[in-house]
Automatic annotation (TrEMBL):
Pfam families assigned to the protein according to its UniProt record, in alphabetical order: Tti2 (PF10521)
Family classification: Belongs to the TTI2 family.
Keywords for this protein: Signal
Example of a GO cellular component annotation carried by this entry: nucleus
Family matches, as PANTHER family: TELO2-INTERACTING PROTEIN 2
Protein name: TELO2 interacting protein 2
Keyword hit for Signal: yes
InterPro entries documented for this protein: ARM-type_fold, Tti2
Ranges annotated as spanning the membrane: none
First and last residue of the signal peptide: 1-23
Length: 463
């Protein structure tokens, strides 16, 4: 600790520890008076923050600080972590912390936790030594307070007198996560996201009004890294909030509109997270389209249709490999959810299936395998409508078998998987067309096909 201000902090902490024990030994301060007597001093300790012990502030909302601006932060943060760790270790000597001491620790824990989380993440303002120091500080805090892990620290348990420290942490973060100030400090959004992702149901619902607005702010930011962080936070909220609470004040609809707009971006990572979030959020807003409605014989279009329609529209025109893989990976889950309601989208879906099966995606052929999965799910869900489309799909699958069998650059396992999935699709097509596919197979000229293709067709005809 070369910085004199860090040394001063350490001395202040140790002098407080000595004063605390002296008052207890001499009887000058009772257990009931202790927390009030010390609170002012404690908050002064944590307000005393050496310049650079946390990350510097930005001058505006658009710029980002250079690495040089953070140069002095790690060494000072390491010193503060060491001082706080020493104090906590001394504070926890002699067994568990109970009574007024436990209340005191509960008051101290939120700022300590925020400081530790700020500096144990791999960011521009940390180094390996400062990260190690911050992790030790967090571990010591958990040990002294008797908390099992960070989630227990934040949420507490029903049996505990003081509960978790989530309220205290949010009290610290919330003023800095407002619309006008959250972008001024790079660390704040990361600490907020870390805190939110530790909280699960049922502890999240009571704090929804404090957790949702900052998550929406992150989601709406123009920078992809912030949008991704926001979508992760919103997805976590959707997964860990009671449906009734999320629907209250139309909050679920607000989240839906905020995430849905990301489907119009060209950032593959943002779209991938958004599609995953929407899949879970849609069940909060409405029933699954495959669920029968006893009150009506007609399945009305819903938000599931809006999302699937947009996915298929983008898939038709998309040429970027990364985006094609994202869409192809998400599509099977949406087709599964739609069930028989996928019939409303068969025309557009057929064009997507044919287009994606024709184009190779080496070396793993992820797109083709996912699209074959989509084809199989579609045939099973909407088989009465598939006979009329069997000719185009049959030709496409036969071309796929010929292409795959002649492609020597494909790995043997990938080649076998593609041929097996294509054979499964052919069997399903044959079943929905009442054996018509097998009749067409008999007209195949064996001199034009490799032994692998003929073997695959033979297995289809046998089963």
């Amino acid at each position: 600790m070369n910085d004199p201000r860090v040394s001063a902090l350490a001395l202040l902490l140790l002098s407080f520890d000595f004063s605390y024990k002296s008052c207890r030994w001499t009887g000058r301060t009772s257990d009931e008076e202790l927390p009030g007597w010390s609170s002012h001093l404690l908050f002064r300790i944590f307000i005393f923050r050496p310049p650079g012990s946390s990350s510097p502030l930005l001058n505006d909302d658009c710029s980002s600080l250079s690495a040089a601006a953070y140069q002095s932060v790690p060494s000072q943060a390491t010193g503060v972590c060491s001082a706080l760790t020493a104090l906590l270790q001394n504070f926890g000597k002699g067994g568990g912390v109970k009574g007024p001491a436990a209340q005191l620790l509960h008051t101290l824990a939120p700022p300590i936790c925020v400081f530790a989380v700020t500096h144990f993440q791999e960011q521009a303002w940390t180094s390996s030594s400062s990260r190690d120091g911050a992790r030790r500080l967090q571990t010591t805090l958990l040990k002294v307070g008797g908390w099992k892990d960070s989630a227990h620290l934040l949420m507490g348990s029903e049996q505990e007198e003081h509960g978790g420290i989530l309220t205290g942490v949010l009290d610290i973060l919330q003023p800095q996560m407002s619309k006008d100030s959250w972008q001024r400090c790079e660390a704040v959004k990361l600490v907020f996201a870390w805190t939110l992702l530790q909280v699960t149901r049922p502890s999240l619902s009571p704090h929804l009004h404090r957790l949702l607005p900052p998550s929406l702010l992150l989601n709406d930011d123009y920078r992809p890294e912030n949008s991704m962080l926001g979508v992760r936070c919103l997805h976590h909220i959707v997964l860990h909030t009671a449906t009734a609470d999320l629907r209250h004040f139309n909050q679920a609809e607000v989240v839906y509109q905020a995430v849905f707009k990301h489907l119009y971006t060209n950032q593959a990572a943002v779209i991938q997270l958004s599609l995953s979030c929407l899949l879970d959020l849609l069940l909060v807003l409405e029933k699954s389209p495959s669920s029968p409605d006893p009150s009506s014989s007609h399945r009305k279009p819903c938000r599931h249709d809006d999302v699937l329609r947009l996915i298929l529209t983008h898939m038709e025109a998309e040429h970027k490999v990364a985006l094609r893989r994202v869409y192809a990976s998400a599509l099977p889950l949406y087709i599964d959810r739609m069930g028989v309601a996928v019939c409303r989208h068969l025309k557009r879906l057929e064009r997507v299936l044919l287009g994606y099966l024709e184009i190779s995606d080496p070396p793993e052929e992820t797109n083709r395998l996912k699209i074959l999965d989509v084809l199989q799910k579609t045939i099973r869900a909407a088989w009465p409508r598939m006979e009329a489309r069997s000719d185009a799909l049959l030709l496409c699958l036969l071309r796929l078998l010929v292409d795959v069998s002649s492609d020597r650059q494909l790995g043997e396992s990938v080649q076998r998987e593609l041929m097996d999935q294509a054979a499964t699709s052919l069997r399903l097509l044959d079943a929905c067309s009442h054996g018509r596919v097998q009749l067409l197979f008999q007209q195949v000229d064996s001199s034009c096909c490799s032994s692998d293709v003929l073997g695959c067709l033979a297995t289809v005809m046998e089963k």
